[in-house]
Design a protein that fits this description.
Layout: H1 4-8, H2 16-25, H3 29-39, H4 42-64, H5 91-136
Length: 137
C-alpha cells in the first residue's frame, strides 16, 4: 500500500486545504487519482488514517526487530512503511551479546577445567595411596 501522505509530502494531520493543494500540484497521475479517491472523501480518509497508523506501527516494530526489506523492495510501494533497522535498541542484538558472553565464560571454564581436574585427581590418588600405606604399616 502506498503512503499517500509521504508521497504527497504531507503529514497525516494535514488540513483539507493542504491536501487539496498537494493533490493539485502532483504530477503523477495514478498517485493523484488515488489521493483524490481516498483523501478528499472524509469517511475514506478516516478509514485510511486508521490503516495508516497501524501500518506505521508495524513499520516501527519491524525496525526495532532489525527487519528490513531486501534490495529488490527498495523504492517500491511495498516499502513505504518500512524504516531502517534500529540497531541501537535491537533486542536481538542484546540477546546475541549476552549469549556470546555466556559462551565465552563456558569455553574458558572448559579450557581450564581439564588441567585442574587432572591435577585434583592426581593429588587425590597420592593422598589415598599415602593413607593406605600408612594404614598398612
Amino acid at each position: 500500500m502506498r503512503d499517500l501522505y509521504k508521497r504527497l509530502g504531507l503529514s497525516p494531520d494535514a488540513s483539507q486545504e493542504a491536501i487539496h493543494a498537494a493533490i493539485d500540484a502532483c504530477q503523477h497521475s495514478a498517485l493523484k487519482a488515488d489521493a483524490q479517491m481516498v483523501l478528499q472523501v472524509e469517511s475514506r480518509r478516516d478509514e485510511y488514517d486508521a490503516l495508516h497508523a497501524a501500518l506505521s506501527d508495524i513499520g516501527l516494530l519491524r525496525a526495532r526487530l532489525g527487519l528490513t526489506h531486501g534490495a529488490y523492495w527498495q523504492d517500491s510501494v511495498a516499502n513505504d512503511f518500512s524504516l531502517p533497522p534500529d540497531n541501537v535498541c535491537s533486542r536481538q542484538d542484546e540477546l546475541v551479546e549476552r549469549l556470546s558472553h555466556a559462551a565465552g565464560w563456558h569455553n574458558r571454564w572448559r579450557e581450564w577445567r581439564a588441567p585442574w581436574l587432572i591435577a585434583g585427581l592426581f593429588a587425590l590418588g597420592v593422598l589415598t595411596g599415602a593413607a593406605l600405606c600408612h594404614m598398612l604399616l
